[in-house]
Amino acid sequence: MHIMEGYLPMTHAVAWSVAAAPFVVHSARQLQRAMDADPSAKMRLAAGGAFTLLLTSLKIPSVAGSSSHPTGTGLGAVLTGPASMPVLAGFVLSFQAILLAHGGLTTLGANLVSLGIVGPWAAWGTWRAARRAGIPAGLAIGVASAIADLVTYATTSLQLALAFPQEVGGVPAAFVKFAAVFAATQLPLAVVEGVFAALVWRALGEQAASPMLPRRA
Amino acid sequence: MAKRSWGEAAVILVGSVVVIAASVVLADGRTGTDESARAVVEAEQPAYVPWAAPVRTNTPKQERALFVLQGGLGAAGLAMAVWALHRMRSRRAPD
C-alpha cells in the first residue's frame, strides 16, 4: 500500500496531505477523549497500534511470485474506533518512510488516506453490518480486517490511477492496471490478515468489547 | 487469571516471532507489490521523473533487520497490551 517516495506528482502529494490533515487532527482529539473516558482505552489503543506495526512489518509471499504487506488496521479500527486510526497509521507510515525507505514523506498523506482513513472506515462499516446481521464477533472481525486490507489497496490503485491515467482509457484503465498488480498478492493476503485478526481478537477476550463499540447489535 | 494473562501474552509473542521469521525467510528475493506498482509507473509514464528520494537507502540485509525490528516492537507491544488487558479484567472481577 506504500506509494514510493516521489512517485506522486507534487500537486497530488500536496492534495492528499491536505485531505488527510483534518482526519489526523480529529484522530488526536479522539484518542485523548477515549483515554479520558475509559482507563482500558490506552491498552486497546496499544493493541491496535502494535497489531498494525506488526502486520505491516510482514512481507507475505504469494503464489503469484511476489510479496506484500498486510495492513493490520481493521482490528485497530474495531478496537478503538476508525476515527482514532489516522494517528496510529501515521506513526507506522512515518517509521517505514524514514527508516525503511518504504513509502515516503512526500507520499505520506496519500498513504495515510488509504491505510489510516479509508481502510479503517471500511472495516468499521463491515464490522457493524456483520454484527447487525448476527455474525459471530470472531468471524465479523476477520471479514472486517480482510475488507480493510482490500479497500486500502484499491484506494492506493485509485490514487496512482488519478496521478498516472492511461492515454487510452484514462483513469479507469489505469486503475484496472494498478489493481491487477496488487490483486494477485492481496486477495489471499486479505484472508491471512482476517485469520490473524480473529486470533488476536480471541486472545484479547472480553476486553476487546470496547465501551465505544456495539457489543451486540 | 494471572496465569491466563501470561499465557495469552506468551502465545502472542511466540506466535508473532514465528510468523516474523517465516515472513523473512519465505519472502526473501521476491518482488514486493510496491516495487511492481513503481515499475508500472515507469513503464507507462517513462517521462515521469520522481521529484523526491527516500531519506535513506538500505541494503537488503539492513532492510530485513529493520523489518524484524518493526515486527518485534509490534509483537512486544501487542503481547504487553494483551497481558495488561487481562490483568485489568482480573482486578475488576470479584474474588
Short précis:
The complex is a heterodimer of chains A (about 220) and B (about 100). Chain A has about 220 residues and is mostly helical. Chain A is built from seven helices and two strands.
- Rg of chain A, alpha carbons: 17 Å
**What is the terminal-to-terminal distance of chain A?**
32 Å
Order of helices and strands of chain A: HHEEHHHHH
Q: How many domain regions of chain B?
A: 1
The percent range for helix content of chain A is over 70%
Residue windows where pLDDT falls under 50 for at least 5 positions of chain A: 211-217
Query: How far apart are the first and last residues' alpha carbons of chain B, in Å?
Result: 11 Å
**H/E series of chain B:** HEHH
Please state the overall shape of chain B, judged from the principal axes of the Cα atoms: elongated
- The tally of strands of chain B reads 1
Beta fraction of the residues of chain A? under 5%
Percentage of residues assigned to helices of chain B: over 70%
What does this protein look like?
The complex is a heterodimer of chains A (217) and B (95). By secondary structure, chain A is mostly helical. Chain A is built from seven helices and two strands, in the order H-H-E-E-H-H-H-H-H. Chain A has helices spanning 10-37, 41-55, 73-80, 85-100, 108-132, 137-163, 170-204; strands at 60-61, 66-68. In chain A, helix 1 (10-37) crosses helix 4 (85-100). Chain B has one domain. Chain B has helices spanning 2-27, 33-44, 60-92, and one strand at 31-32. The longest helix of chain B has 33 residues, at 60-92.
List the defining traits of the structure above.
heterodimer; A: 217 residues; mainly alpha; two-stranded antiparallel sheet; 7 helices; 2 strands; globular; disordered C terminus; B: 95 residues; 3 helices; 2% strand
SSE blueprint and pairings:
The complex is a heterodimer of chains A (217) and B (95).
Chain A: H1 10-37, H2 41-55, E1 60-61, E2 66-68, H3 73-80, H4 85-100, H5 108-132, H6 137-163, H7 170-204
Chain B: H1 2-27, E1 31-32, H2 33-44, H3 60-92
Helix pairs in contact in B: 1-3
